[in-house]
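Example for tutorial group B:
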C-alpha cells in the first residue's frame, strides 16, 4: 500500500505482479490524469514505449546491477522528461544490486533529480540497505494469483449497503474519516471488490463499484485528498444509490 513519491520500493515475491504494478504506477505518473488509460501517455506506457519511462536492467553478462550501470542512470535522470511532467525509472531486481551499486543509488535518492520518480523492485524488504529503505515509500504488492484480503470493515459497509441501510452505511464509513491512507486504500479496494462481484446481477452495484474505484485510484496515484473528504463524498454518493 502507499502513495507514489519520488522514491518508491515495490516489495513482493511475484516478479510478474511486481513488474505489472510498476508499469501501472509509471503510467499513473506520466499521464496528467493519473493513468486515465486513454491518452497518448497511457498508450505509450502500456506498449512500453514511453520515452520518459526507463527500465534499468543489468548489463548483459552481469549477474547483478553493477555500479557502472547505476552510474549511467545519474546523467539520464538529470535530463528533463520529454513528453511528461515527470520521468520514471523502474529498477527490477533492485535487491540484487552490488553494495557499491546500492550506495551509488543511495546518493541519487539523497539528492533526487527534479521531476524523477523511482520504482525499485525486490522480493523482500530485508534485502535492501536500511539507508535506502528509510528514503523510500514502501508499496507491498500481493501475488497476482492470490486475491487480496478484504478488511472486515469493508464487509460491514457492504452489508449495510445491501440492507439499504443509509444510516448504517454512513456510520460504518464514518469510522474512517480520519484514517490513514494505509488503512483507507485496502478498505476502498476491498469494498470495490465486493461491489464488483455483485455488479453482474444488479446494476446498482455497478454504480457503487464505480463510485468506490474512483477514490481508490486517486489514493493510488497519490493525489492529495484527505480521508474526511474521500469518506464524505463516498457516503453521500453511496447513500444516493440506497435512497
Ligand atoms: Zn492517461
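The residue assignment follows.
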Amino acid at each position: 500500500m502507499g502513495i507514489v513519491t519520488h522514491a518508491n520500493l515495490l516489495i513482493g515475491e511475484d516478479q510478474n505482479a511486481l513488474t505489472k504494478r510498476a508499469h501501472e504506477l509509471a503510467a499513473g505518473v506520466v499521464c496528467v490524469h493519473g493513468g486515465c488509460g486513454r491518452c497518448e501517455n497511457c498508450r505509450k506506457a502500456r506498449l512500453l514505449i514511453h520515452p520518459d519511462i526507463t527500465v534499468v536492467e543489468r548489463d548483459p553478462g552481469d549477474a547483478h546491477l553493477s555500479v557502472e550501470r547505476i552510474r549511467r542512470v545519474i546523467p539520464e535522470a538529470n535530463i528533463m522528461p520529454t513528453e511528461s511532467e515527470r520521468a520514471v525509472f523502474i529498477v527490477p531486481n533492485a535487491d540484487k544490486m552490488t553494495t557499491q551499486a546500492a550506495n551509488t543509488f543511495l546518493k541519487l535518492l539523497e539528492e533526487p533529480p527534479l521531476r524523477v520518480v523511482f520504482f525499485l523492485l525486490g522480493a523482500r524488504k530485508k534485502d535492501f540497505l536500511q539507508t535506502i529503505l528509510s528514503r523510500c515509500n514502501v508499496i507491498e504488492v500481493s501475488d497476482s494469483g492470490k486475491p487480496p484480503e478484504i478488511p472486515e470493515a469493508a464487509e460491514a459497509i457492504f452489508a449495510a449497503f445491501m440492507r439499504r441501510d443509509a444510516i448504517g452505511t454512513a456510520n460504518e464509513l464514518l469510522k474512517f474519516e480520519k484514517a490513514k491512507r494505509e488503512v483507507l486504500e485496502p478498505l476502498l479496494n476491498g469494498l470495490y471488490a465486493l461491489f464488483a462481484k455483485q455488479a453482474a446481477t444488479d446494476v446498482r452495484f455497478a454504480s457503487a463499484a464505480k463510485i468506490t474505484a474512483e477514490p481508490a485510484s486517486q489514493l493510488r496515484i497519490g493525489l492529495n485528498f484527505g480521508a474526511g473528504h474521500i469518506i464524505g463524498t463516498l457516503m453521500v454518493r453511496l447513500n444516493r444509490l440506497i435512497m
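The CA atoms of residues 11 and 125 lie 7 Å apart. Compare this with the pattern of hydrophobic and polar residues in the output above.
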